[in-house]
Predict the 3D structure of the following.
Amino acid sequence: MRLSWRSASGRGLLYQAAALLVVMVLGWFLASNTAYNMAQRGIQSGFDFLWGPAGFEIGEGLFNFDSTQSYALAFLTGLGNTVRVAVTGIVMATLLGTLLGVGRFSRNLLVRVLCSAYVEVFRNIPLLLQLLMWYLMLAELLPAVDTPMTLGPLELSKGGLMWISRSAHEEGALWALSPEFMALTLGLTLYTAAFIAEVVRAGVAAVPRGQKEASAALGLSRLQAMRHVLLPQALRIIIPPMTNQYLNLTKNSSLAVAIGYPDVVSIANTALNQTGRAVECIALVMAVYLCTSLLTALLMNAYNRRVALQER
Amino acid sequence: MSKIHLKIAVLSGVLSLWAAASLPAHAGKTLDAIKARGQLVCGVNTGLPGFGAADSNGKWSGMDVDVCRATAAAVLGDAEKIKYVPLNAQQRFTALQSGEIDILSRNTTFTLTRDASLGMHMTAVLYYDGQGFMVPAKSKFKSAKQLKGQTVCVQSGTTTEKNMTDFSRTYDLKLKPVVFEKLEAATGAYFSGRCAAFTTDAAGLASVRAKEAKNPADHTILPELISKEPLGPMVRRGDDEWFAIVKWVVYGLIEAEEYGITQANLDSMKTSTDPVVARLLGTNEDMGKHLGLDREWLARAIATTGNYGEMFDRNVGSQSTLKLQRGLNQQWNKGGLMYAPPVR
C-alpha cells in the first residue's frame, strides 16, 4: 500500500495518524499543564510517597498488613480486597443469575412470576441504597459480639462470621468474614444476578426454536433439553454480554467505601488525605480498575474464542 | 478662575496625590477578586454541629462559619455576602488549591505536611482539640488503653486513622479500624453496635453524642486525648496579603475577648480611652490600613460574631447543646492557650 493522498486506504491511514497525533498532543498538554500549575502553587507531586511507611492500619486483608509497611503494599492490600469481593461476587452472581434466567422458562407460573419480580426489583433500585440497606440490616439485626449465634464451629455476630477453633491448643478464629465483606458481596451478587438473569434469558430465547422441538422429539425431558441442548448453545450468545456484567460488578465494588470495606478506593482515599497527592492517588485507582477490567475482558475473550463455533 | 481658587485646586490636587501615594501599596489579588465579585467563598464542613452545619432553613452556623462571617464583615462590610461550599475531607484541599474557595474553614488540623507540601498556609489556631474515643456507657471500658483488639469505627480522610494507629502501636492494642467515607455512616455503624468504639476529635465526639445519639447519657467519652489537633482556617499560598487578613481577623477576635470588647458593649467601647481598645476598634490609630482594609474592620467583625469567647459559648460552649469546657481554648491569662499577638 502506498502512502498517497490519492488512494482511499492511504488517506485513511493519514487521517488516523493525524487523529493519534491530536490525542497525544492533548494528553501531553493536560499532563504538563497540571504539573506546571501544581509546581506554581507549591504543591509537591510524584509517586515517591508510595515507598514511605503508610502509618495506618487496614481492618482486613488477604495477607497481614502492618502500619509500618509502605503505601505501595497498602494499595496492594486494597487491591487484594477488591479482587476478593469481585471474584466471590462474580461466581455467586453467575450461579444465582443463571438459575433465575432459566427460571423464566419454567412451566410453573409461580416460579416464572417470582423470577421476573426479582429481576425488576433488584435492577431498578440503585446499588448504593441496596448496599446501605444490607449493611444496616446486618449491623442492626446480628447479635452482639459477646452473644453470637453458633452453628457447630461457626459463630455469627456483629463482628462477622467466624470459624472458631475449639481445640485445647489454640483458641480463636481460624478465619473470619467481616459484616462489611458480607454486606458488599451480598449486595453486589443480588444486584448483578438480576442483570445476568436477563442475559441468560435472552441467550436461551435466542436459540432457534427448532432445537427445543428437536430435543422434545428425541424424547429429552425439559430439564435435559435445557442442560444438554439449549444452554450450551445459549452460552455462545451469553458470553460477550456476561463479560460486561463481570466488569460492572468489579467496578461497582468501588462503592465499598460507603459501608466501610477497605477496598482499593478506600485505601486510596486515606493515602490521598495523608499525603495530599490527589492526582497521583486517583490516577492509581483508575489504573487499577483499567487493568483489572482489561484482564477480565482478556480472559473472557479467550474463553469466548474457545467456545465459539469453529467456522471452516 | 481667581488666584485663590487656583491655589486651592493645586493644593487639593497635591494633597490627593499624596493621599493616594500613602494608601497601602497593594491589597492582594484574592481581596481584589472578593471585592470585585462582592462575595466571599468559604469552604466549610458538610455538617458538623458547632463548627459548620446548615439548619433546616439553609442558614449556616458554627465556629468555622463564624470565621467566614467575621472575615466577610471585615473585608466586605456585610456578613451575609458569603457563598458556603460544603466540602468533605477529600475535597477540601483540592478546592482551596484550585481557587474554588477563598478560605478553608472546616475544622482542619494544622500539620507540617499540609502547611509545607500542599500549596497552602495555616493561619491562626481557632480551636485546640485532641482525638478521643467514645464507647457505650454500659461497656466495661474506662480507659482507651483497655480497648485491646477491639474494632473502632472511623471516618476516612482525616488525621484520625494515623493517630489511632500510632496510639495502637504505642500501647500494643491491635485496634481494628472500620473506615467509612461519610461521618453519618461511621456513627451509624457505631450506634448499631458494629464497633466497640468511635474515634474522632473530642469536640466532634461531643457533637455526635449531643446530636445523633438516641440518649446522649448512654455514651461515654474516654478521658485520653491521643493527639494534638490544632484546628483553624487555611488559605492558598501565593497571596501574603490575604493570608494576613484572615490570620488577623482570628487574632483580633481573640484579643477583643482579652480586652473585654463584646457584641453588646461595642458601641460604648468605641468611646474608651484605653489605647489598646481604641486601636482594636480603630477610634484613634488606623490598624486596618496595614491589611488593606478600613479602620472599622475589626469593629464590624465583632459586631457580627462577638468576640472569640462569645463565639465559643454560642457554638460549642455553655449556651450550646455541646456544652464543651473552654479548657485549652481559654485565654492565656486564664490558663488556656489562646494568646493573640498584639494588634498594634
Observations:
- Chain A has two domains: 1-40, 48-114+190-307.
- Chain A touches chain B at residues 38, 40-44, 55-60, 67, 132, 135-136, 139-140, 144-145, 158-159, 178-180, 257-260, 262, 266, 269-270, 272-276, 278 (CB under 8 Å).
- The beta strands of chain A are 149-151, 154-157, 160-165, 172-177.
- The longest strand of chain A covers residues 160-165.
